[in-house]
């Protein structure tokens, strides 16, 4: 087992295909297949369940992947630490869809302009999934909105380091002439579970229903889909005001301010790299706090 073999294993796991992994890594398929079989023989387990269309991780493969990701991340961290004056290597960034849509473009452009030797990747997903990515080392850092505690303040998990970056004004978008009393149920368009804004929206609508109505959630994959649901006349959605300003909203729909929400930059406790350090500085300059 070596660094290259772990990279090959991780890529096949991500692509679920030897063909796609070979193309991504610039290797021949036979080499990828041989490396995976050698790794399985060395570990004494079957890492993938193979069928005619794709390769999916076995239970043992999923367990091993988490270790492989941490080993590769630690190796990259060590490599970057040897050259602290010149950020290089990779920086895997995660962000909520809202942050990517309304905040990140100038930040990423500035980072790339100053540090072109850093291969920066961006993945968007809800806060819960982003925190999991930071913990399992598939992400080096992420922009999330941590759930507030009983006093209304976000609580940083003990295995995560975090710093506040942005304040977002959350607004509830409601179709024209929708009334709370005229609905058999309250319909809410939102991202999948794990989204902190979804949790806030559900809590708000449950409080408005006064216990006599259920909140039915329509899961969507984008803010454009949320707006389309509202345009249909039967749904509400919760989104940052900064995102709403970038979208074409349904005619005569209503925006109601709900609450402020903090966005935090988070990373694994103890993790550091020159690239992450420079990203932290750029975000600090862009902060609206």
Automatic annotation (TrEMBL):
Residues covered by the HTH lysR-type domain: 1-58
Superkingdom as given in the UniProt entry: Bacteria
Pfam assignment, any one: HTH_1
InterPro entries in alphabetical order: LysR_HTH_N, LysR_subst-bd, WH-like_DNA-bd_sf, WH_DNA-bd_sf
Coiled coil: none
Keyword Ribonucleoprotein: no
Keyword Transcription in record: yes
A molecular-function term among this protein's GO annotations: DNA-binding transcription factor activity
Entry keywords, A to Z: DNA-binding, Transcription, Transcription regulation
Alphabetical list of PANTHER family matching this protein: HTH-TYPE TRANSCRIPTIONAL REGULATOR, HTH-TYPE TRANSCRIPTIONAL REGULATOR GLTR
Family: Belongs to the LysR transcriptional regulatory family.
Record's protein name: Putative HTH-type transcriptional regulator GltR
Lineage: Bacteria, Pseudomonadati, Pseudomonadota, Gammaproteobacteria, Enterobacterales
């Amino acid at each position: 087992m070596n660094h290259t073999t772990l990279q090959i294993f991780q890529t096949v796991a991500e692509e679920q295909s030897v063909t796609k992994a070979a193309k991504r890594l610039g290797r021949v398929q036979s080499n990828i297949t041989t490396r995976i079989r050698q790794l399985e023989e060395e570990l004494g387990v079957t890492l993938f369940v193979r069928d005619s269309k794709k390769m999916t991780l076995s239970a043992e493969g999923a367990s091993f992947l988490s270790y492989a990701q941490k080993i590769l991340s630690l190796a990259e961290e060590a490599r970057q630490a040897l050259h602290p004056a010149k950020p290089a290597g990779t920086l895997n960034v995660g962000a909520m869809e809202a942050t990517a849509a309304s905040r990140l473009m100038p930040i990423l452009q500035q980072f790339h302009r100053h540090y072109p030797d850093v291969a920066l990747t961006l993945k968007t997903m809800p806060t819960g999934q982003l925190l999991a990515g930071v913990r399992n080392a598939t992400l080096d850092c992420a922009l999330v909105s941590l759930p507030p505690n009983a006093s209304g303040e976000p609580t940083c998990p003990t295995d995560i380091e975090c710093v506040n970056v942005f304040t977002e004004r959350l607004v509830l978008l409601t179709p024209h002439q929708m009334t709370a009393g005229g609905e058999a149920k309250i319909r809410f368009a939102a991202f999948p579970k794990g989204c902190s804004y979804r949790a806030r929206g559900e809590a708000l609508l449950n409080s408005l229903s006064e216990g006599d109505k259920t909140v039915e959630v329509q899961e969507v994959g984008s803010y454009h889909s949320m707006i389309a649901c509202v345009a249909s006349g039967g749904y509400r959605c919760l989104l940052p005001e900064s995102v709403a300003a970038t979208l074409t909203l349904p005619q005569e729909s209503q925006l109601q301010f709900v609450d402020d929400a903090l966005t935090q930059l988070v990373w694994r406790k103890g993790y550091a790299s020159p690239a992450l350090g420079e990203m932290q500085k750029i975000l600090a300059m862009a902060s609206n706090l």
